[in-house]
Design goal:
- By secondary structure, the protein is mostly helical.
- The protein has 13 helices and no strands.
- Helix 1 packs parallel to helix 12.
- 51% of the residues are buried.
């Protein structure tokens, strides 16, 4: 199998894993406070990435972790993870996942504003249309508006900032070390969120605490596996080829939401999701073409 085909397959597997992780976290918040879920998720992620680092013969601490950029990355990680966890707890899985697909659009805009990368009018137009899709899902001021969906918007900017900070992070740090630092900051964040009672009560549905704990344990295991598949995809195939397959996460989320949570996205949500999907893929392909031309 060619490298790009293998990379694309691993990317699809990773996105399917992340969609399952989202589902399990949502179920976990039905029996446990969202802050506790975030804190335990951070602890589990720390343990998983610590094992991966030690298996690769890497240290768990590096002086490069104290670089100022890592502080910005940690803040962005907290914003993204906290926002998305609260979004999963308080709104539909399909809606939260659809809004989060706007993250690459924000990354492109951020690369232009922060790193001075050239972004032409076509991609700026696509970014604007993509955010119109987000507004179609949010529907501010209309009957379909839910405040919980705003947490998904917060997560978009958090994850985009994290991706930009990761690009500027010290090259000495491995993927496992970056993952370890990213999950470590979730532990105190989850504790504070739990103490403040944010996201308490979830989306109104309830699950036995023990079953919720099992869902959380499953989310941690699946998440680490998905992260490994994502890393493999990015290393095996060309980035410009495998990256568009990130959007299969939305398809998986729609299927899981409809099949297991009885979610039925309305026409406006589906139309907004389609806009985000189309503009995101176009932006990635356009970026690839510009890069090749340069």
């Amino acid at each position: 199998m060619q490298d790009n085909a293998r990379g694309s397959l691993f990317m699809v597997l990773a996105m399917g894993g992340f969609a399952i992780e989202d589902l399990l976290i949502k179920l976990a918040t039905r029996g446990l406070p969202a802050g506790l879920v975030l804190m335990l998720f951070g602890l589990g992620g720390c343990l998983g990435f610590a094992l991966l680092a030690r298996r690769a013969g890497q240290t768990l601490f590096s002086p490069a972790m104290l670089h100022p950029v890592m502080g910005l990355k940690a803040l962005a990680e907290v914003t993204g993870r906290l926002g998305y966890t609260l979004a999963l707890a308080t709104t539909a899985l399909s809606s939260a996942s659809a809004i989060m697909q706007a993250t690459p659009l924000v990354v492109v805009a951020g690369a232009a504003l922060v790193f001075g990368e050239t972004v032409g009018w076509r991609r700026w137009s696509a970014i604007g249309i993509g955010f119109a899709g987000v507004l179609m899902i949010l529907r501010p001021g209309l009957d379909g508006f839910t405040t919980g969906a705003l947490w998904a918007v917060v997560s978009v900017f958090g994850f985009a900032a994290r991706d930009l900070a990761t690009r500027a992070a010290p090259k000495l740090l491995s993927n496992a070390q970056l993952g370890l630092t990213g999950f470590a900051v979730l532990v105190p964040t989850g504790a504070v969120t739990w103490a403040l009672g944010l996201g308490h009560g979830g989306d109104g549905a309830h699950l036995a605490p023990m079953l919720s704990a099992l869902c959380l344990a499953g989310a941690i295991c699946v998440g680490i596996g998905a992260y490994s598949a994502l890393t493999t995809a990015m290393r095996v195939g060309e980035v410009s080829v495998v990256t568009p397959f990130r959007y299969t996460r939305l398809i998986f989320a729609m299927i899981l939401g409809a099949g297991l949570l009885a979610e039925r996205p309305d026409a406006m949500t589906l139309a907004g999701s389609a806009l985000i999907l189309a503009t995101g893929i176009y932006t990635l392909l356009r970026t690839r073409r510009v890069a090749r031309g340069a």
